[in-house]
Amino acid sequence: MTNSSLANPASIPPELSTEIRRLMHDLSNALEIVLQAGYLLTTAETEEPVKEWIGLLDGGAQQALKIHQQLRDYIRIHS
Predict the structure, then answer these.
(1) Extents of the domains making up the chain
(2) DSSP string spanning 25-62?
(3) How confident is the model at residue 59 (pLDDT cuts 50, 70, 90)?
(4) Which are the contacts of 42, defined by CB distance < 8 A and separation ≥ 6?
(5) What pTM, to 2 d.p., does this model score?
(6) What percent helix, strand, coil does the chain show, rounded to 5?
(7) Which of 77, 35, 41, 37 is nearest to 59 (CA)?
């Protein structure tokens, strides 16, 4: 999602916006669990390939977090 796509607001109906915000909150909670569990795994003594898998988990979680932020920004601008 680019800044130019955020600059063309099309209003999201209030009832839809409320439901999307609820879902985003639930997604945020789930992401927090994944991020915290990933962090805790980095503190454990592990060997390859487990360390690599933890890195993949963290990379995916960080990407999901960025997408979550972009969705949150989009909803805020269009609501």
Answers:
(1) 13-78
(2) HHHHHHHHHHHHHHHHHHHS---TTHHHHHHHHHHHHH
(3) very high
(4) 54, 58
(5) 0.76
(6) 80, 0, 20
(7) 35
